[in-house]
Amino acid sequence: MRALNILVVGAFAASLGACDTFEGMGQKELTGTAVGGALGALVGAQFGGRTSDRLLMGGLGAALGGFIGNRIGRSMDERDLAEHDRAAQEALWAQRTGQAYGWNGYNASGQFVPRGAAYRDPMGRSCRAFDDTVTFRDGYRRSVPGTACLDANGQWVVVG
User: pLDDT confidence of 54, banded at 50, 70, 90?
Assistant: First the structure.
């Protein structure tokens, strides 16, 4: 078990190391790497039957999520993130399934599209699925499906 824990931590560290050094990263890259790694670990840990399998999948998810989050963070600035978040909150509250909510920032633009009606998850939270597409200034486009749930403050938070 100890060796597996070291493997998980090593995979996450390798994902960070693959993204340059901390000194070379901007705040957006660090945030993207941390958030992506955490979300990747959370999603990855849902797979596998035994605890050791879940730890391994969590580590792999952290590595992949950290890498993807780093790349997105490198390209988006705070204004882009604020516009993206505004569109996401608006879209999820509007209850209009399939309607795209567009946004434009400095380095990126995109569309946030709710899929299906809100539902209750096993923890009793109100959740909603979505598709999120971001197009960066250099033409790179990234589309991801996801799920957001309401937190205690009434904000939609991505959970998967």
Answer: confident
Distance of CA 83 to the CA centre of its chain: 16
Give the number of other Cβ atoms within 10 Å of residue 155's Cβ: 14
Element (H, E) at 158: strand 156-158
pTM of the model: 0.54
Q: Give the whole-number percent of the chain exceeding pLDDT 90.
A: 31
Q: Measuring CA to CA, which residue among 110, 117, 147, 154 is closest to residue 130?
A: 147
CB 112 within 8 A of CB 87: yes
Q: Where are the domains of the chain?
A: 2-75, 78-158
At 118 the three-state DSSP class reads: strand
Alpha-carbon dihedral angle through residues 125, 131, 137, 141, given to the nearest 10 degrees = 130
